[in-house]
Amino acid sequence: MKGLFFKGVQLADRQTPTEHIITPWTPTRAVVPLLPREVGVVPVGTVVKKGTLLGEEGGFAPENGMVTEYREIAHPLMGKVLCAVMELCPHDETEDPEKYALQGAHNREDILQAVRQAGIINEATGEYLWKELQQWDESLLEYVAVDLLEDDPLCGAGAALFVSDREKVLRGMEYLGDVLPEISRKIVWNSRWMEENQEGIPKKYGLRLKKRYPAWVLHQQESGACAVRIGVQALAALVEAVEEGKSQTHTIVTVAGEMLTDPGMYLVPIGTPIGELLEHCGAGARPCQVVMGPALTGQAVLDQDAPVTANTQGITVWSPQKAKLDDRVFPCIGCGKCQSACPMGLEPWVVQEALGLDPVPIPMLWRVEECSQCGVCRAVCPSGIDLTACMRQAAELRKRGGLT
Amino acid sequence: MRLIEGAPRFIQASHSSQSSMWDMLLVLIVVSILPVVYHGPRAAILIVGSMAICMLCYIAVQLITSRPIWITDCSPLITGAMIALLMPANVPYWVVAAADFFAILVAKEPFGGTGHTPFNPAAAGMVFASVLWPEYVFSYYTMNSGQTLPLIWTELTTSPSPTAWMREGIQPEIMPFEMLWGRFEGPMGATVTAAIAAGFLYLVIRRSADWRAPVFFVAAAACYAALFPRLLTGAEISVKYELLSGSLLFCACFMAADPCTTPRTSIGKCLYGALAGILLMLLRNYGAYEQGGCFAILLMGAVSPLLDRAVLYFRRGGAVHANHTRPDHSQR
């Protein structure tokens, strides 16, 4: 039955940018989020070196520069967060001392410590990697998959990073094996481009998934495997943390959209203000609508100073005129496309109907807490109803026990 | 650069509710080309007039209830075209107009308009007209006798349609080619088999219509015709005439594909189609009228929410176990 009805949605092939070239770029300012504990430890006016810890537990200076102020910023992916604003002077090439570099043999505890001190975020999940590594070790996982998936046409820097530096990723796999000795490792990919560039992936690691979005969730549902994902950027940061003692200060974002003259994949410091990045990409002076995050699940950006974070992955820029046209929402016509596309086999149309009733009949909110928020239902809905938001709302309602 | 607020426009599937309705309208217009060629200007007046009446009714209701008018919402046009195409070409104009009024003013708008109709408005309008004026709705003028259809309604020589022949257990004599192109007595839009099939194929390829309900509709009707033939000449001939004469194919391809009145679940759609097909054949065999398509669609409209509930009930019953056997490690 599962094979008969296709789940998920077939998104277009990579639209923009077409080339898998990673361009490094440094802004003049950085707005570094001080997560997980929002306390700044460096006084305003201090000149800091690259890699200096600005917050109590996280937030590293991406380049040499001066801390000018602390500001609270409404971030689309992280909510309200305290940030350190820095003026960067990247031409000053003084090297940061290799504080945590491990020498010789690496044991599990050392690697975990290095990952923790580097503040690495797993971009595939948006969680801290050291926490996840500990959790994974305790759970009965079948494998850990390195995410080279390109089902999202507007993200997918992972595959490009892998192809540009295979050795580093494979070394990362070895370290991963040191941390999680019981769990096997895989490299998952699904694009034609990766098909042509897959040399270097050992047979035992390779795992090809289907092209439909969301490939990872669909694969898990079909195979029933108990597995987790780690992003390539997080893995590369792990290698740098272990071998060179570097913190995670840079990330690769795919900047795309019809409003840009210069779309592409950019290697930028974490904390790059989105406004400056888009200006560099040629957004011009026209008003535009910016979405941060993966194409189907991203959030609208309203603050030009909202920083790029390790889990940003993609930034898309739409023209507002085009957005207006499709804004009108039709009633649910009952086509059932959301249900047949949902990778988890949920019933978004029932939930949408239930939320319109008062009081909300809780039995109609069946399994809503399992929703992976992949955004497929919203993408396939011909009436343009935000079903993903309905599912999120229903899950919250269910958690609270049904009281609105 | 200025960032502006607004509903984020994410990647959206190319087909929308609107585009699928326009596709349906396009298909209906293409289907009405052959009837206009066969029956002359009267057919064109019927179709265009019916569409206009439905649209005017819709606009009037929106004005009275002071709701916004969406000119791009072409569902009244679809209803109008369907009603006209299911009528014989020699039907009086006022019968079509009455069916249109009933469809929009009784079956559609009181329930909340597009997207909320529990019953297919076109089917409701047709049933209304069939019950009140069967002598007009089921009388077809003899097509190949050389008589031309005047614009003003006059008494014409009529012949029974193949479906009426079959009610008497007599095998109709129609050449296969004429059957395919609809040159025989019957509802003017429902006999053009080739155009209907091509239109349905177009809708499915464009993903504007779901294939499940129509395919199961036709399959179930064919099975019934093969198992309990009305003709003594055998199952094969019975299936051919049952499927290709009358409004069966039209109702299956266009009315059973309407997302509003069919179940939302895939299995529900299949069940709906199969039950509607069998119901149609039962109505043809034992009902009072020779055409059962609209009656079957209308009756199944009442059942389709129940089918959905039943499918969901069984899914949930089965899924409770699957939920607990495997720890959930999906991310995000």
Describe the structure.
The complex is a heterodimer of chains A (404) and B (332). With 404 residues, chain A is α/β, with parallel strands linked by helices. Chain A has 2 domains: 8-85 and 100-251, no CATH class; 337-399, no CATH class. In chain A, 28% of the residues lie in helices and 21% in strands. Chain A has 13 helices and 16 strands. By secondary structure, chain B is mainly α. A two-stranded antiparallel sheet of chain B has the order 2-3. The chains are: A alpha/beta (404), B mainly alpha (332). At the A-B interface, α6, β11, α8, β14 and β15 of A face β1, α1, α14 and α15 of B. β14 (287-292) of chain A pairs parallel with β1 of chain B.
What labels would you give this structure?
heterodimer; A: 404 residues; alpha/beta; six-stranded mixed β-sheet; four-stranded antiparallel β-sheet; B: 332 residues; mainly alpha; two-stranded antiparallel sheet; 2% strand
Record field, number of beta strands of chain A: 16
Note the overall shape of chain A.
globular
Give the number of domains of chain A. 2
Portion of residues in helices of chain B?
Answer: 55-70%
Order of helices and strands of chain B: EHHHHHHHEEHHHHHHHH
CATH hierarchy class name of chain B: Mainly Alpha
β-strand number of chain B: 3
Structural class of chain B: mainly alpha
* Proportion of residues in β-strands of chain A: 15-25%
Helicity level of chain A? 25-40%
Oligomerization state: heterodimer
Q: Which blocks of ≥5 consecutive residues of chain A have pLDDT under 50?
A: none
- Our count of helices of chain B gives 15
* CATH fold-level name of chain B: Ammonium transporter fold
Q: What portion of residues of chain B belong to β-strands? A: under 5%
Uncertain regions of chain B: pLDDT < 50 for 5+ in a row?
319-332
Overall mean confidence score, pLDDT of chain B: 86
